[in-house]
Amino acid sequence: MKRRHALAVLLSAGIAPLQFAHAAPADASPLTIVVPFVPGAATDALTRLISQQWTNKTGRMVIVENRPGSNGIIAADAVKRVAPDGRTLLLSNFGSNAVNYSLYSKLPYSERDFTPVTLLFRLPSLLVVPAASPARTAQELVALAKRSPQGLLYGSAGSGSGAHLLAELMKSMTQMPATHVPYRGVAPGVVDLVAGRIDFMFSSYSSVQKLVEAGQLRVLAAATSKRLPALPNVPTMKEAGLSEQIVMDQWFGLSAPANTPADVVAALHAQFAEVLRDPAIVQRMNEQGVEAVSATPAEFAALIKADTERLGRLVKAVGASAD
């Protein structure tokens, strides 16, 4: 019954069933994915979308277990402690599995506690201003900041968040004066942005899409290396006349506890990689400004290592701390 229900959900969403090239594992036990975000968050919804398709193809249920809080520490610590049998995975991300290592002086986990399985998707960051802002381009925003006596105010989901680090990177590259206003999450910052209480912020498209479409917010540029399919008329930072180094993708993937057998990791990677190649999944993500992307366990491990070092330098440069 549950399998038929999952199939019905996929068909109603316009997602055709896939057939894996390899057989489903004999183990029919559920797969638990621990998500460090609240139910209904964009990342939670994307994880569930991918999980439904995986369930349909393997015959195994996916239990999405939400454990939000403490910048992903609660979820990561929980997965670290489970048996390394491939039955429980973490929705790892650039925050809890890269930035946190520099943001906190003490963590209950380290990169050695996890085995990377695969990337799932990236959430590109957009430079967004209120509709009433006189800045129509990224260069105009920089110029506005430089001629404003007190500079500008920008918001983020908190100290050390991707939006905070990206804004500080833009400040250092352009020498624009701007003051950080940290919020407890993205939504309160977006509310103040619409009201004009802050001047700009970086955000994923999914967090501001309806407000952009309603004309209440304006996107000036994408902090990406190429334009987004959902926003073909929005220039990249380089195209907008700023540095091509002002780029930051918020990546999300699956990691298993350390010492999970290599053949189990390989099988999971292959299954999820095939799901992410499905055109319907890719289209659904593109419509939300999300990039479906897979990577081998080795490639994912290399990305985590590189971003831990790169973002760690940025955290230290701006003096961000969550202690």
From TrEMBL:
Alphabetically sorted, this entry's keywords are: Receptor, Signal
An example Pfam family from this entry, by short name, is TctC
SUPFAM superfamilies for the chain = Periplasmic binding protein-like II
What range does the record give for the signal peptide? 1-23
Q: So which domain of life are we looking at?
A: Bacteria
In the record, the note on similarity to other proteins reads:
Belongs to the UPF0065 (bug) family.
Q: What name does the UniProt record give this protein?
A: ABC transporter substrate-binding protein
Organism whose genome encodes this protein: Caldimonas thermodepolymerans
- What is the organism lineage in this UniProt record? Bacteria, Pseudomonadati, Pseudomonadota, Betaproteobacteria, Burkholderiales
